[in-house]
Amino acid sequence: MCRNITTLRGLEPPATDEEISAAALQFVRKVTGVTKVSDATREPVERATDEIAAIVERLLDDLPARRQPPKSVPPLRRAEVQARIAERQRAREEHERMHELGIAHEH
């Protein structure tokens, strides 16, 4: 079992579409060995991720409720992960803004 895939069944509030999609992407990366999506792998990885996410959503809906919640909190619900995501998004937006202005910058 891939350690990066979190248990989503039994979460309160229930797993979000974003959490289900993230788990599906981790599964696809694990079984394919694709660690970084490239132009050559983007379409099949995205298609597989969408299909697996749909299957997981149906599965979670069909299973009976858990007696106890999962022991770990999904990464997307952790403050430190949210901070990293926000920082990456901020850096991406800054990079795009600098690129639009034609300003070179160091990484």
Characterise the protein shown here.
- This is DUF2277 domain-containing protein.
- Residues 88-107 are annotated as: Disordered.
- This protein is an all-alpha fold.
- The chain folds into 2 domains: 7-72; 75-107.
- 56% of the residues lie in helices and 0% in strands.
- It is globular.
- 9% of the residues are buried.
Outline of this structure?
This protein is mainly alpha-helical and 107 residues long.
Helix and strand sequence: HHH
Count of individual helical segments: 3
Shape: globular
In the predicted model, the low-confidence regions spanning at least 5 consecutive residues are none
Our Rg estimate from Cα atoms comes to 17 Å
Number of E strands = 0
Strand content: under 5%
Query: Kindly state the mean pLDDT as a whole number?
Result: 86
What number of domains? 2
Overall helicity: 55-70%
Counting helices, strands and paired strands, the structural category is mainly alpha
Largest sheet: none
Cα distance spanning the termini: 36 Å
Descriptors for this entry?
107 residues, mainly alpha, 2 domains, 3 helices, 56% helix, globular
